[in-house]
Design goal:
CATH architecture: Alpha-Beta Barrel
Number of strands: 9
Order of helices and strands: HHHHEEHEHHEHHEHEEHEHEH
Strand content: 5-15%
Number of domains: 1
Structural class: alpha/beta
Shape: globular
Number of helices: 13
Distance between the termini: 50 Å
CATH class: Alpha Beta
CATH superfamily: Glycoside hydrolase/deacetylase
Bound molecules: zinc ion
CATH topology: TIM Barrel
């Protein structure tokens, strides 16, 4: 038994040494504390280990890296448009609507005539319906980011996912009159069965290729430079218009004033996620 644990540890560390790409840690903030990339375990690697029973795999369930999920489910999970030839990029905003910050972001987007994609929390959409209406009226696209922002992997059951997604879908439908088909998981945390459930609910999973890390609330120029330096044609950029009660998105707002004109001057065209990926945004 001891030997099998050692084999497991060696295989896991081998896996991480072979996969030195950026882990897509979305807004991992106060709610759950910072989660180190090393806590990610590739489910397939675990399943391949003969001595690990299914029961143990269940107990060890961890988020699967989104790059890996994209390879496993190329028609469901999207990180970017890898073949974009039109210099298109997409701004995305999570965790809103937020009465403290979302309107300022909408003002900037309007000023620069930039459409974006907002992944809303159902609970906040119900609390601030007028902001949801404004997002829609100003030409932006709305996606589903669950109702209460749970860690779906920690919850681990498909019923939680279905409840969170469906409740949000129904709440948004009341406000925007369409059923969104775009889903972004809180923290970017999913594993195989959850992806398959999302697909069954007729959603695409929209991840990202450029993480602004704006939830860390660094100075605006640091957030802006990170995005500007990492963008390529086809990039999906992760930012946040919403925050916890003690969070602040003022630096995100200021960073946008640098990001948008700089990238426009470099010849990039901002589009919505469904336009970038040429996928539908409603069912
Ligand atoms: Zn989020």
């Amino acid at each position: 038994m001891k030997n099998s644990f050692m084999v497991l540890a060696i295989l896991i560390s081998f896996y991480f040494s072979m996969n030195n790409h950026t882990f897509a840690n979305e807004d991992i903030h106060q709610e759950v504390g910072t989660i180190e990339p090393s806590t990610f375990i590739n489910n397939q690697e675990l399943t391949n280990l003969k001595d690990v029973s299914n029961e143990n795999v269940r107990q060890l369930q961890q988020p699967v890296d989104l790059n890996e999920l994209q390879r496993r489910y190329p028609d469901i999970v999207f990180l970017e448009d890898p073949n974009n030839t039109q210099n298109q990029i997409a701004l995305t905003f999570d965790d809103g609507p937020d009465q403290r910050f979302t309107n300022d972001i909408l003002d900037i987007l309007r000023e620069y005539n930039v459409p974006a994609t907002f992944f809303l929390l159902g609970s906040r959409a119900v609390a601030y319906p007028e902001i949801v209406t404004r997002i829609q009226n100003e030409g932006h696209i709305i996606g589903n980011h669950t109702y209460f922002h749970p860690n779906l992997v920690e919850e681990g059951d498909l019923a939680t996912l279905e409840r969170e997604v469906s409740r949000t879908e129904d709440a948004l439908y009341e406000l925007i009159n369409y059923r969104t088909s775009l889903f972004r998981p809180p923290y970017g945390f999913l594993f195989n069965e959850l992806v398959e459930k999302v697909a069954e609910l007729q959603y695409d999973v929209i991840a990202w290729s450029v993480d602004s890390l704006d939830w860390q609330e660094e100075p605006p120029e640091i957030i802006a430079n990170r995005v500007i330096n990492e963008v390529n044609a086809g990039s999906i950029i992760l930012m946040h218009d919403g925050a916890d009660w003690d969070g602040n998105r003022t630096n995100t707002i200021e960073a946008l004033r640098q990001i948008i004109p700089t990238l426009q001057e470099q010849g990039y065209n901002f589009v919505t996620v469904p336009e970038l990926l040429n996928i539908p945004y409603q069912k």
